[in-house]
Amino acid sequence: MSSTPQEDRLVALLRQHGVDGQPVYGLAAWSAFKAYGREVFGPQSIGLLFQVGTYDFTGSPLFHFDPVCQFEITDADGEHDHFEQLHCELTCSPDAALSGMEASLWSFDYPTADAFFAAVEALPAFQASVERSDYTLSVSHETV
Q1: I need a labelling partner for 18 at 20 to 30 A (CA). Which of 31, 74, 76, 104 fits?
Q2: Structurally, how many domains does the chain consist of?
Q3: For residue 115, what is the DSSP state?
């Protein structure tokens, strides 16, 4: 499977922030995502999303710490065609500390990337999940 330029840039930033292999420290991955988010933040066609929660997508529940960058793709006339999302998804087995933790926050209501990041970092769900060092990382770019 070939990667996109967006995936390649995020992976390069992850490496610069000490994320190279598994398991992954949540704060290191978040720092890399913040660097990426600062690079792309600005156009109304790009949104940043922070989402966490326990979900059963594969037959067994996993806790997901998933910062996302969403890109609006337009057609030749400049009209909306579709969205693409770049995920920096961290997963781990849920435990008592993560039980019931769920949050979702978009950047569209914030004037700067740093204002959005500050709002995310103030969330109890962020605080409870960012310090973990047992995450598995998956970087993916998908059409939604």
Answers
A1: 104
A2: 1
A3: H
Tell whether 128 is covered by a domain. Answer: no
Q: Is residue 129 part of a domain?
A: no
Edge-to-edge order in the sheet of strand 136-143: 103-106, 46-55, 62-74, 80-92, 136-143
Express each pLDDT in 53-92 by its tens digit.
Answer: 999 888 889 999 999 999 988 889 888 888 999 999 999 9
Residues in the chain: 144
Smallest CA-to-CA distance from 137 within 92, 90, 94 is with 90
Q: pTM for this one?
A: 0.91
Amino acid letter for position 118: A
Residue at token pair 């769900």:
125
| 3-class secondary-structure state, position 133 | coil
Domain extent, residue 47, equals 5-66+74-102+112-122+138-142
Nearest to 10 by CA among 64, 52, 48: 48
Is 30 inside a domain boundary?
A: yes
8-state DSSP, 24: B
